[in-house]
From TrEMBL:
Membrane topology: Single-pass type II membrane protein
Name assigned to this protein: C-type lectin domain-containing protein
Lineage of source species: Eukaryota, Metazoa, Chordata, Craniata, Vertebrata
UniProt-listed Pfam families: Lectin_C
Primary localization class, coarse: membrane
Length: 226
């Protein structure tokens, strides 16, 4: 019996030790989980703050966006529907902005830059047109060609030509909208050598000149259908 009791006692001790061991592991796990929970809470709080911050930013961007839309809409109204000079203040809308010439389905602005320092290279002229939500003019038919050469009504001696949206690309005359020049007779006997761009001028053929020359220029944009 003594031996048996002894064995039993040892077993008890082992069990108790095992239990303590198990408890220690559990406590450790518990501590670990508590730490993790704290970390998750902290991250959650940071995310909440970030979300609030982003929401505020989105709201403020929406506000600016709206204000910009309103001022842009106002600008378009003022450009296309200027208030009449008469006292009745009625607005009169047109297909083209004030200062632009309406012809067929396009609006044109002829940049009569007589001062040499204000004249532009072909690229610079194109930039200027783009700034006016337009591009250098593209001529689609004979009538438009006649009109393009005609609008140069105010020919100053300092103006040697007006840039149009035609330039040599890969040995061909190409419009800036990607189309080939359909009527070769418009620019007779002039090789489409890269680096050459085309100018129009009243009472003369279109002329191929270096794209880095300085000239006046004509911009074109679609007319509004009013
Ligand atoms: C296990 O640990 C808890 C606290 O961490 C303690 O209250 C309990 O008495 C322990 N149990 C044993 C059997 O040691
Ligand atoms: C508690 O975390 C430590 C490191 O942070 C790790 O070494 C240990 O194994 C973890 N204990 C449990 C029971 O998960
Ligand atoms: C909240 O946004 C502002 C800018 O609007 C920024 O300066 C700040 O650092 C942001 N705060 C947090 C916690 O992201
Ligand atoms: C602002 O205008 C753009 C188009 O120009 C439109 O897509 C957008 O929905 C407008 N935004 C608001 C807030 O009206
Ligand atoms: C380029 O413009 C001309 C004249 O407006 C037009 O006839 C032609 O179809 C246009 N090409 C492309 C690819 O839009």
């Amino acid at each position: 019996y003594k031996k048996l009791a002894c064995c039993f006692g040892i077993l008890c001790v082992i069990l108790v030790l095992a239990m303590f061991g198990e408890n220690a592991t559990l406590t450790q796990q518990n501590q670990n989980l508590t730490t993790e929970l704290d970390q998750v809470k902290k991250i959650n709080q940071e995310l909440q703050t970030e979300k609030k911050n982003l929401t505020e930013q989105v709201e403020s961007m929406k506000k600016t966006w709206n204000e910009q839309n309103v001022s842009q809409a106002q600008w378009i109204i003022d450009e296309y529907c200027p208030k009449s000079i008469n006292t009745d203040k009625k607005r009169q809308c047109a297909s083209c902005q004030k200062g632009w010439l309406h012809y067929q389905s396009s609006c044109y602005v002829v940049n009569n830059e007589a001062e040499l320092k204000n004249q532009k290279t072909w690229e610079e002229a194109r930039e200027d047109c783009r700034g006016k939500s337009s591009d250098l003019t593209v001529v689609g038919n004979e009538e438009e060609k006649v009109k393009t050469d005609e609008v140069n009504f105010w020919v100053d001696k300092n103006i040697n030509g007006y840039w149009i949206g035609l330039r040599a690309e890969g040995g061909r005359w190409k419009w800036i909208n990607g189309s080939d020049l359909t009527n070769q007779a418009w620019i007779p006997q002039q090789q489409a050598t890269d680096g050459r761009c085309v100018t129009s001028l009243q009472n003369r053929e279109w002329k191929s000149v270096s794209c880095t020359d300085k000239n006046a220029w004509i911009c074109e944009k679609k007319a509004l259908s009013i």
